[in-house]
């Protein structure tokens, strides 16, 4: 069931989203060679709680941390811990914040130190995929227009578009209907209406689109071990076009 949001609810989501975005800016500043993913997680949680907000993922189906920290070939749901970042790594930090009962969800992939040009291109194209998807989040369009825009751009670079994980509606629940695939056909799927709030989140692999989950029950990695990138914003469909709700102040 799709839950459309009122203007007031969209403002609540924007408030959560602002904290999400500010926290990700802090992560960008801290993600340097030598820091552990566990330290990033701790700093992130402290910041969020200092804003009177809560980490939505902590405890979600038993997830143990505030952020998902996915390094290199890890696609999503990497668990923070003792792993130290190294020069040349890329790290995807996915964060959902709950403020006043509403959630804001955003992800960035950050280059650590000096990263090779092939990985930098993957980051740039994945972020561009996100903005191509957001551009399609317009009333009167269909859900498939978002996925089609993301997929066609990513595949024009020979990249793999992850099929097994998708974006989602968001509001008082972190994951609401509809699913928002990063692939699809233009003019197909659910009609987009004002009040729809979506987490659009392309997960793009340098090589194969195929992924698998590690035995810890969370971490998803590429099957060929090549790097993956992930960018995400929470976006409202409004009468005046798409509005990104996960922007810093
Ligand atoms: N932002 C992630 C998503 O949209 C949420 C991960 S939280 C976790 O799937 F608890 F599931 F890890
Ligand atoms: Co999400």
From TrEMBL:
HAMAP family: MetAP_1. Removes the N-terminal methionine from nascent proteins. The N-terminal methionine is often cleaved when the second residue in the primary sequence is small and uncharged (Met-Ala-, Cys, Gly, Pro, Ser, Thr, or Val). Requires deformylation of the N(alpha)-formylated initiator methionine before it can be hydrolyzed. The keyword Metal-binding applies. A divalent metal cation 2 binds at residues 105, 168, 201, 232. PANTHER family: METHIONINE AMINOPEPTIDASE (PTHR43330:SF27). It comes from Megasphaera cerevisiae DSM 20462. It catalyses: Release of N-terminal amino acids, preferentially methionine, from peptides and arylamides. The gene is map. This is Methionine aminopeptidase. Its EC number is 3.4.11.18. One of its GO terms (biological process) is proteolysis.
């Amino acid at each position: 069931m799709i839950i459309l949001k009122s203007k007031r609810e969209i403002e609540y989501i924007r408030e959560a989203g602002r904290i999400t975005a500010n926290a990700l800016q802090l992560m960008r500043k801290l993600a340097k060679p030598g820091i552990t993913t566990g330290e990033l997680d701790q700093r992130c949680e402290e910041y969020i709680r200092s804003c009177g907000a809560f980490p939505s993922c902590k405890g979600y189906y038993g997830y143990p941390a505030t952020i998902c920290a996915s390094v290199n070939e890890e696609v999503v749901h990497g668990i923070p811990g003792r792993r130290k970042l190294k020069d040349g790594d890329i790290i995807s930090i996915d964060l959902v914040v709950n403020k006043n009962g509403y959630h804001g969800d955003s992800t960035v992939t950050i280059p650590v130190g000096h990263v090779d040009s092939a990985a930098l291109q993957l980051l740039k194209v994945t972020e561009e995929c996100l903005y191509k998807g957001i551009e399609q989040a317009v009333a009167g369009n269909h859900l498939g227009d978002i996925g089609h825009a993301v997929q066609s751009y990513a595949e024009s670079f020979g990249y793999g578009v992850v099929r097994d994980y998708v974006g989602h509606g968001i509001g008082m629940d972190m994951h609401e209907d509809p699913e928002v695939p990063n692939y699809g056909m233009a003019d197909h799927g659910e009609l987009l209406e004002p009040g729809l709030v979506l987490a659009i989140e392309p997960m793009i692999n340098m090589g194969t689109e195929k992924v698998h989950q590690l035995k810890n029950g969370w971490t998803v990695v590429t099957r060929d071990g090549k790097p993956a990138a992930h960018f995400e914003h929470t976006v409202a469909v409004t009468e005046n076009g798409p509005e990104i709700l996960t922007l810093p102040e």
